[in-house]
Every structure is written in C-alpha cells, then in structure tokens.
Amino acid sequence: MTSIDLNADLGEGMGHDDDLLRIVSSASIACGGHAGDAATIRHILKICKARGVRAGAHPGYVDRKGFGRFRVAMPLEQLLGQIRSQLFLVRHIAGEVDVPLDYVKLHGALANQAAEELEFAVGIFASIHAMDPKMAVLALDNSEQVKAAKAVGLPLIREAYADRAYNADGLLVPRAEAGAVIDDVDAVIDRCLRLARHGEILAIDGSVLKSAARSICLHGDTPGAVDLAREIRDALEGEGITIAPAAAETETSPG
Question: How high is the pLDDT of residue 33?
C-alpha cells in the first residue's frame, strides 16, 4: 500500500496549529529563531503526543522581523551557535514532555541556502550530527541538502512542496518571482497525487522532475491553509494512499 507523509511548519504564530495537527502526520516546530518560544513549543509537542504526530525541529535564521526568509551574513560558527541554541531549547522541552524529536527541517532562507550550497549544508548537518547522530534531516529532494546529509551520515527523509513552484534544476522558484507560490487548489492537489503515485513533479517550465520524496510540506502560513491541507489529505486517502510519517533512509539504505 502506498503511503505519504504530510508535514507542516508550526508554532509560527498563524493561529491554526491545533487544526493542522488534526490533518498532518509530522510537525516541524519553530524553535525560537524566525518564530516560536518555549510556550508554543510545549503546546505543540503536547498535541503531537496526544495525537501521535511525529515531531521535528524547525530552526531558521534568528530574524523575526523578516520571518527567516532573508539570508543573513555572519560567520558560520555564529550561525551554528544560533542553530544549536534553537535545537537545545526544543530538545529540552521535548524531554520534559516526553516526546521523541525525530528530525530537523531547516526553515526559509536557511533551507534554501543549504539546498544550493553543499559546503554550507555540510557544516550545518555536521553540527547537528555532533549533537545527535540519530537525528534525521527532512531535506528538499534533489538538492545539496540530500548530498550533505549523506556525507555526514545523518538519516534522511526526502521532502517535496505542495504549493511551491520548482525550477528545472529541482530547486524552488524564489518567492520574489511570479508564480513561486501556487494558489490554485486543484493544481496543488494534482501535484500531491502525481508525486505520491508516480514520483513526479511538474517544473515551472513544463519539464518533469523525478522525485523520491515521501513527505509533502503543507505551508501553515498561507491563506486557507487548513482547508487546503484537509482537501489534500482527503484526495490522497480517496486514492487509497495512507497518510503516515515517512521512514528515514540511513547510509546503509539503498537509493
């Protein structure tokens, strides 16, 4: 039976985390960088525990004004310190609540930079590996993040985006460009079904990208996010596709 993971970025102050946690199978929790604080982290982790939703950390640039969507120039060690601080916070609270923290997903500009720059991604993932070598990385498939996770030996969960346009090279179209965010509900649903059934994503130029992603990101910060997430889940389940957390690949896994 085919299965797919639905993940959402939560704890970002959008006001509908509880509703999305009734739909998704994985929750990427903002941990004090671009958004979130101890109270929001604790709240979401408790719901994850009650509903059996897999929990992950969602660190980003410490830039609340820009919501972590702009690259910030700083020494790598300074950036790694910011990421470690965010992970320490969410890991500490997860321990108190007794919820496993299974993965890390980079946010916004941090994620995009790591998807493009292998050395940058390796530096970040090596730092995560030093903290917890069993922590998986939820990474944009066909990007430098995948290569970096493999290089440092972190378990890997490949991700694709439901409502973001792709360039022919497999990277996301920058948000500043026209058509970067797909707001047609039927188009988004069709993209999710095509990925789940055939492992394909249609790029913005009409070319077809092959993808091994088994986790689909549903953005929680877009208008109508809850209704869209529910329609996506209903459509997938209507095609006999099970919604469940995706298994992580390890360095010994094939593919």
Answer: 96
